[in-house]
């Protein structure tokens, strides 16, 4: 291939870089992120917590009654008219954060990734995958590459 023969896909990418909304960031990188919730931590490690009953997360509507019974060291808690042994419940710390799984130069690249792989990203939290914009600030390699691509014309 002649070095001057630039593939159409690269020219299309250059046009997207020139015309996309960079969301107020000069050197935008589009991050595909998934929501990650980790339950089972020691309560002292986080401010968030969750109640578990028979391996399942308990409805947050029940938490005030469970917290009160726990704080009062009661053996039984009454919720919605039913009595439950407190020993059958566990309270754990929870970590909730967004994890970057892929970075692209354009928002369309991130959207295409989610369209192709989104089914693999939703199982770790309560939220669907999202596109979050960060910056290539101070990463000269990526800034040079973006600038070069944006300078290409058909």
Average predicted confidence as pLDDT: 91
Shape: elongated
What does the largest sheet look like?
Answer: 5 strands, antiparallel
Helix content: 25-40%
Multimer state: single chain
How many individual domains?
2
- Class inferred from helices and paired strands: alpha+beta
Kindly report the spatial arrangement of strands forming the biggest sheet: 3-2-6-1-7
- The amount of beta strand, in percent, is 25-35%
Uncertain ranges = none
Count of DSSP-assigned helices: 4
Q: How many strands in all? A: 7
Précis, in short:
The chain has 154 residues and is α+β, with helices and mostly antiparallel strands. Helix content is 29%, strand content 33%. The protein has 2 domains: 8-35 and 100-151, no CATH class; 38-93, no CATH class.
Please characterize this protein's 3D structure.
- Helices cover 29% and strands 33% of the residues.
- It has 154 residues and is an alpha+beta fold.
- It folds into two domains: 8-35 and 100-151, no CATH class; 38-93, no CATH class.
- The strands form two sheets. The protein has a five-stranded antiparallel beta sheet. It has a two-stranded antiparallel ribbon with strand order 4-5.
- The longest helix has 12 residues, at 8-19.
- The protein is elongated.
